[in-house]
Amino acid sequence: MSVHATARIVATRDGLPVLAGAGPLALRRTRPALPHSRAHSRVTVVGAMSAPLGGDRLAVEADVGEGARLDVDSAAATIALPGRGSEQAHYDVRLTVGEDAELRWLPEQLISVLGSDLRMHTRVDLAATARLVLREEQILGRHGEDPGTLTTRLTVRRSGRPLFDQELSYGSGAPAGWDGGAVLAGHRAVGQLLAVHPEWNDKPYETRLCGESAVLTPLAGPAFLVTAVAPDARQLRRVLDDVLRSELPS
After folding, report:
1. pLDDT digits (tens, 9 = 90+) for 141-171
2. How many domains does the chain have?
3. Sequence-distant contacts of 161-167: CB under 8 A, at least 24 apart
4. What does 190-201 look like in DSSP terms, one character per residue?
5. Which structural domain, as residue segments, surrounds residue 38?
């Protein structure tokens, strides 16, 4: 039997008036990870059961109100698993960040298991003065295992206008060439780090390499995207953490 569930977070200047988990998505109010972020609310997503499985439709919604600060992470990796049938699983993330608000969305990795079929779509709507740090990491198969079918899409709008829209597909159900030299070149871990800050209007970033396996690309707005590949999850996280420390110091 498939699961349909939506978890919801609402953050304001005064705290977290709405923190509603659902199904396999439990939400926990946790302490800020660093002293500098004590003014931020922090929420950790905890998996209450194995999910997403084939046929599941899961969603997380976060609304960060004007002037609020919210950090969201997760307690463990999300593992896409095969269901009893051949149905595709869906996992939607919908984020809204208001004026002079800030969201740091830093979940753990998404692991695509052999035989699974998952479509994940993250949608972000930003106000003109909103700030965002968003990390997504995809691990293609467990150790020594081929991946399932995974399609991820990241759509970001700022002031109602498109800022970024990218779709990636991997695994047996993806178009040919996803594992070729022009795409992953045999790597099994891929990640994106997207950051938006209105102050960068006056000093935009320039395209450059970040080590041997990542590239920083400015977007058409006060934002940049880092795309990285690595042999495994640990090395991927190290690359993205290095960028976080260098480009977005605490």
Report:
1. 988 888 999 999 999 999 999 999 999 999 8
2. 1
3. 163/126, 163/196, 163/219, 163/220, 163/221, 163/223, 164/194, 164/219, 164/223, 164/225, 166/192
4. EEEEEEE-GGGG
5. 4-247
pLDDT in tens, 86-140: 789 999 999 999 999 999 999 999 999 999 999 999 999 999 999 999 999 999 9
Query: Percent of the chain scored above 90 by pLDDT?
Result: 72
Query: What are the φ and ψ backbone dihedral angles of 231, each rounded to 5 degrees?
Result: -65, -30
pTM for this prediction: 0.93
Burial class (CB in 10 A: 0-12, 13-18, 19+), 215: middle
Is-contact 60 52, C-beta < 8 A? no
pLDDT of residue 186: 79
Answer yes or no: are the C-beta atoms of 148 and 116 closer than 8 Å: yes
Cis ω for the linkage preceding 52 (within 30 of 0): yes
Cα–Cα distance, 99 to 219 (Å, whole number)? 20
Question: Which residue bears the tokens 């709405």?
Answer: 18
- Shortest CA distance to 222 belongs to which of 203, 207, 201, 194? 201
**Shortest CA distance to 27 belongs to which of 88, 66, 71?**
71
The Cα–Cα gap between 23 and 21 comes to 7
**Structure-block tokens of residue 123:** 């949608």
Residue with tokens 């976060």: 62
Interval 197-206: pLDDT, tens: 998 887 778 8
For residue 107 the two structure tokens come to 């979940």
The token duo for 75 is 């307690």
